[in-house]
Structures are given as structure tokens and as C-alpha cells.
Write a structure and sequence with these properties.
InterPro entries: Spore_coat_component, Spore_coat_U/FanG. It holds the Pfam family SCPU. Keywords: Signal. This is Spore coat U domain-containing protein. This protein is mostly beta strands and 170 residues long. The protein has one domain: Immunoglobulin-like (Sandwich), CATH 2.60.40. 11% of the residues lie in helices and 30% in strands. The strands form two sheets. Strands 1-2-7-5-4 form a five-stranded antiparallel β-sheet, with no helix packed on it. A three-stranded antiparallel β-sheet has the order 6-3-8, with no helix packed on it. It is rod-shaped and about 125 Å long.
């Protein structure tokens, strides 16, 4: 025990002395500032259409088909979808009141309507009032359209086609 008592003061002195080497650094002062971080999410829209192919037409009953325009628009993007008159507009056709026709490429036509509603009351046109307005969700959205080939048309046998331009305003 006497050896421990004799060395105790030296051990304490050694511990105190070694503590001098671990003194935290002192600073003269400090200054602060806020760092601002910003981001901009621009409106964006991607549109996808699927062809409506090989609609069987019977002059006694006509044909009704429904499909979708698929789009993804950034959340909060307000947009209007317009559909043009097509490549073969009929007499009196306009962007607000389209008269759409498919052609067989030989001067024969098959009239049809493209509407926003399944009751075929609201033509889908190429002006803001006749387009479809919606808000983007950031997720894929399906926007339905309805196509009717009216009965009673005296169409020649063949393959008929039309191409419509789909435009989004945002």
C-alpha cells in the first residue's frame, strides 16, 4: 500500500498535465448567415395516343367506339386538350365545329364524330371552348373520347383512315 500512496501524487500530477494537451480551442467569435435553396418545377405534359384501328362499319347500325388519350402532366399544370379537324375535313368544317371524315384515298369518305361524352352531344374540337380542360396530377391520366360512325352512309368497300392532331395547351 505504501508504494501506491507514494506514486499517487505522481499519477495525479501526470493526469493533470496530460489534460493540458486536450484543451478545446477557443474562438474569438462567430458569424451566421442563412443559406437559401430553391428549385423550379416547370409545367410539363407528355401525351400518348393509341390508334383506333379496324372499326367494323355496318351501314344499318353504325359503329360506336371509345378509347383514351393518355397523358402525364406535372402536378398543378392546368391544360386544355384540343383535337384537330383531321386530314379530310368535310364541307363547313371549322376548328370549333369539325366535320370529320375518313378517306379511302380514292375520293370516297366515311363521316364520323369524335366527342367528349358517351352520349355524343359534345364534339371535341380544336379551340379552347371545345377542348377538354383538366389539371395535371403528376401521374398518368386517361382522358376518354368517343367515336361514332353514323349509320346510313353509302360507303364503298375499302380501308378508310384519318389522322387527327392532338394538341395540349398549358
Amino acid at each position: 500500500m505504501s508504494v501506491l500512496k507514494a506514486r499517487l501524487p505522481w499519477l495525479l500530477l501526470l493526469l493533470l498535465a496530460s489534460g493540458c494537451f486536450f484543451v478545446p480551442k477557443s474562438w474569438a467569435g462567430n458569424a451566421t448567415s442563412n443559406l437559401s435553396v430553391t428549385a423550379t418545377v416547370p409545367p410539363s405534359v407528355n401525351v400518348d395516343t393509341t390508334p383506333v384501328n379496324n372499326i367494323p362499319y355496318d351501314a344499318s347500325t353504325g359503329s360506336d367506339v371509345s378509347s383514351n388519350i393518355t397523358l402525364t402532366a406535372s402536378q398543378g399544370t392546368n391544360l386544355t386538350i384540343l383535337i384537330g379537324q383531321g386530314q379530310n375535313p368535310g364541307s363547313g368544317s371549322s376548328d370549333s365545329n369539325p366535320v370529320r371524315r375518313m378517306s379511302d384515298g380514292q375520293g370516297n369518305f366515311l363521316d364520323y364524330e369524335l366527342t367528349k361524352d358517351a352520349s355524343f352531344n359534345n364534339d371535341w374540337g380544336n379551340t379552347e371552348p371545345t377542348g377538354v380542360t383538366l389539371a395535371g396530377t403528376g401521374s398518368q391520366q386517361n382522358v376518354p373520347f368517343h367515336l361514332r360512325i353514323s349509320p346510313g352512309q353509302n360507303a364503298k368497300v375499302g380501308y378508310y383512315i384519318d389522322t387527327l392532331l392532338v394538341t395540349t395547351l398549358y
